[in-house]
User: Which sequence fits this backbone?
């Protein structure tokens, strides 16, 4: 026989002693039953005992209209969001029961009490509570195992990325990071820096596409006093500021031909001259760069220097778009949910099933940055204790159901992309891995508009 310590805990809050005794007598064989006759005792037990289930009578005296019960419900949801609240109500206060559901209650039960019916509702609530707790523990475990600095993920591509970062970070090689806008290129660059021997020195980031060409040169290389009109003092550039540490050149594909030449010279000689200067300055810097362009194609078009490309890409890393990361979408969304719920002081429990399906179906053109913004908006707009599809403001039919054919096509396309990524664009090896002929693999590439060269 289970002891009270081993049983699931139920807190019964009712100002009528006969009802409290009746429920305790009926449930004590299966549960450890705690009793409270008012808000003060209930809140104390919520804090110390952390019950799995709360049976709450809305009609607590001295407020027959249910206001005191509502106030206790609000405090319970905020204090102990993992506790499932079951409202016990009379027939005439059904409207209040529905209002309580919107405030975060799990279910409600109308008096008079039928013990067997109540047991069914409690078992169902406890089952949901246990599943949510297991899911929360799994999420914490995944976050602990799948975090590299501030990078979250558990899909195959991200696990491979973690392995690559562990090998690359301690070295001094130049790394070129590819990825669509919003995939986390700067996070990866910071992770490399903070896992390197340079982590005690400066990490300096500069967006080459956000600064006008005539200013970017002086931003990178600095300038001497009197070098141009307005140069009243000598100023160090970003490269000098990063001496001993790491420079991150974001949107490197936007560099002008002139600055490409100057950057190439720095990478070759490891020295710079300030604008208007004559004296070379030796620097010890690790260079990381990022782009959302295909630099190989830019080289072929004559827009980017081939020698600079090879200097920058001693090691290349490609970040997957969010739409290819499967359940990582929910993992990241939950991370942002916890972050913004605390920031905005809102007790949001999670996402509805429809909201999760909407997030998994959405293409996420803005990637992780867009997901973060959508979750932040949802926290602000949400009126319930869970995030609903309309809170996310996703431009898809959130109630749509995928057909079997659509599911198969998505799975097939993902399988092909993963095979190409693992085999670095080698079609023969990728086809062999998924056990199809080379001609069939070519047909699949054509059907889904996939370019194998992008994975080389």
Assistant:
């Amino acid at each position: 026989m289970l002891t009270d310590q081993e049983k699931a805990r139920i807190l019964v809050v009712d100002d009528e002693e006969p009802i409290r005794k009746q429920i305790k007598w009926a449930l004590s064989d299966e549960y450890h039953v705690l009793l409270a006759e008012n808000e003060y005792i209930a809140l104390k037990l919520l804090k110390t005992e952390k019950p799995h289930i709360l049976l709450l009578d809305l009609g607590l005296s001295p407020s027959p209209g249910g206001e005191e019960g509502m106030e206790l419900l609000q405090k319970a949801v905020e204090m102990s969001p993992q506790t499932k609240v079951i409202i016990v109500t009379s027939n005439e206060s059904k409207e209040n029961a529905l209002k309580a559901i919107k405030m975060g209650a799990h279910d409600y039960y109308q008096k008079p009490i039928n013990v067997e019916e109540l047991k069914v509702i409690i078992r169902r609530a406890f089952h949901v509570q246990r599943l949510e707790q297991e899911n929360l523990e799994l999420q914490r475990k995944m976050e602990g195992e799948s975090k590299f600095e501030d990078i979250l993920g558990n899909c195959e591509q991200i696990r491979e990325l973690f392995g690559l970062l562990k090998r690359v970070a301690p070295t001094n090689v130049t790394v070129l990071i590819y990825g669509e806008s919003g995939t986390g290129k700067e996070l990866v660059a910071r992770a490399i820096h903070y896992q390197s021997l340079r982590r005690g020195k400066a990490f300096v980031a500069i967006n080459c596409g956000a600064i006008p060409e005539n200013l970017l040169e002086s931003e990178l290389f600095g300038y001497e006093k009197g070098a141009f009109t307005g140069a009243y003092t000598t100023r160090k550039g970003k490269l000098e500021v990063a001496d001993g540490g790491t420079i991150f050149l974001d949107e490197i594909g936007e560099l002008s031909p002139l600055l490409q030449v100057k950057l190439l010279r720095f990478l070759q000689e490891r020295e710079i001259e300030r604008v208007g200067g004559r004296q070379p300055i030796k620097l010890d810097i690790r260079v990381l760069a990022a782009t959302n362009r295909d630099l190989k194609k830019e080289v072929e078009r004559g827009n980017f220097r081939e020698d600079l490309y090879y200097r920058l890409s001693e090691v290349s890393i490609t970040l997957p778009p969010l739409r290819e990361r499967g359940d990582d979408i929910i993992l990241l969304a939950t991370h942002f949910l916890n972050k913004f719920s605390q920031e905005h002081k809102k007790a949001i429990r999670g996402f509805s099933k429809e909201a999760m399906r909407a997030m998994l179906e959405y293409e996420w053109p803005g990637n992780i940055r867009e997901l973060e913004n959508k979750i932040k908006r949802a926290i602000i707009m949400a009126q319930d204790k869970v995030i609903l599809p309309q809170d996310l403001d996703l431009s898809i039919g959130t109630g749509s159901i995928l057909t079997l054919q659509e599911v198969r096509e998505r799975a097939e396309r993902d399988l092909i992309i993963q095979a190409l990524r693992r085999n670095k664009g080698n079609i023969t090896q990728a086809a062999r891995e998924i056990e199809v002929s080379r001609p069939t693999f070519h047909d699949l590439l054509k059907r889904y508009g996939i370019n194998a060269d992008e994975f080389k």
About this structure: Confidence is low (pLDDT under 50) at residues 397-401. The two ends are 63 Å apart (CA to CA).
